Amino acid sequence: MYRNYEYRDYVVNIVVEVLLRVQDRITREPSFTAVVQVTSKRASAPLTAPLRIEGRTGEAFHTEADAVMGGYTAGQVLIDRLLRTQQAHQ
Q1: Pairing state of beta strands 31-40 and 26-27?
Q2: How far apart are CA 60 and CA 5, in angstroms?
């Protein structure tokens, strides 16, 4: 799944990866990881490298929706920190 969300003057790009685990020839429940990248609306070049995001406990997300929202939240935090850094240097 691929999603783009706008936040302030930036775009949070999220790709959700599905992780399937097989144990003893039985496929376990899928888990999910979000890959997040931030770009500016004004520039086409990404501002961050792709970052792989997992749940708070360090394990993959249990649902695709959790991965999307976790990725979006991580993107918002990155943008807020970027803006604070820019303001501190002005």
Answers
A1: unpaired
A2: 21
